[in-house]
């Protein structure tokens, strides 16, 4: 499977986020897979930074790799306690 694609756009609806990929695919991902995004405000969700490494939301400390999304992986931090900065 080719996972060397980049995100070109991210947008949201009530229950999901959608990632447009450079190869023409569009991934629909349930917000429930990523609790930080689920709990974020709409304004916080829109503050995404797209990079070759994936998607990043500074305000909510969320990083999601495109390779992980293409592979169907949800949040990999479940069971870990967050550390206060």
The CATH class name reads Alpha Beta
**What is the third-level CATH name, the topology?**
NE0471 N-terminal domain-like
Instruction: Please state the structural category.
Output: alpha+beta
Morphology call = globular
Strand percentage: 25-35%
The total number of structural domains is: 1
CATH architecture: 2-Layer Sandwich
Number of helices: 3
The average pLDDT value, as a whole number, equals 87
Q: Please trace the helix and strand order, writing H or E for each element.
A: EEEHHEEEH
Number of strands: 6
Rg of Cα set: 12 Å
CATH homologous superfamily assignment: Uncharacterised protein PF10387, DUF2442
CA(first)-CA(last) distance? 37 Å
| Oligomeric composition of the shown chains | single chain
For the biggest β-sheet, the strand order reads 1-2-3
Largest sheet: 3 strands, antiparallel
Helix fraction?
10-25%
The parts where pLDDT drops under 50 for at least 5 residues are: 80-85
Show the helix and strand layout.
Elements: E1 7-12, E2 16-21, E3 26-30, H1 35-39, H2 42-46, E4 49-51, E5 54-57, E6 62-64, H3 66-70
Antiparallel strand pairs: 1-2, 2-3, 4-5, 5-6
Question: Which short descriptors sum up this protein?
Answer:
single chain, 85 residues, alpha+beta, NE0471 N-terminal domain-like, three-stranded antiparallel sheet, 18% helix, disordered C terminus
Describe the structure.
- It is a single chain.
- By secondary structure, the protein is of the alpha+beta class.
- The protein has one domain (7-70): Uncharacterised protein PF10387, DUF2442 (NE0471 N-terminal domain-like, 2-Layer Sandwich).
- 18% of the residues lie in helices and 32% in strands.
- It contains three helices and six strands.
- It has helices at residues 35-39, 42-46, 66-70; strands spanning 7-12, 16-21, 26-30, 49-51, 54-57, 62-64.
- The strands form two sheets. It has a three-stranded antiparallel sheet.
- The longest helix has 5 residues, at 35-39.
- It is globular and about 30 Å long.
- The N and C termini lie far apart (37 Å).
- Residues 80-85 have low confidence and may be disordered.
């Amino acid at each position: 499977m080719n996972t060397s694609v980049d995100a070109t756009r991210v947008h949201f609806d009530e229950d999901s986020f959608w990632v447009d990929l450079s190869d023409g695919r569009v991934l629909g991902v349930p917000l429930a897979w990523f609790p930080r995004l689920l709990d974020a405000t709409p304004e916080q969700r829109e503050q995404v930074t797209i990079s070759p490494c994936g998607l990043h939301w500074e305000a909510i400390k969320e990083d999601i790799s495109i390779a992980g999304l293409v592979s169907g992986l949800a949040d990999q931090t479940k069971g870990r306690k967050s550390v206060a900065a």
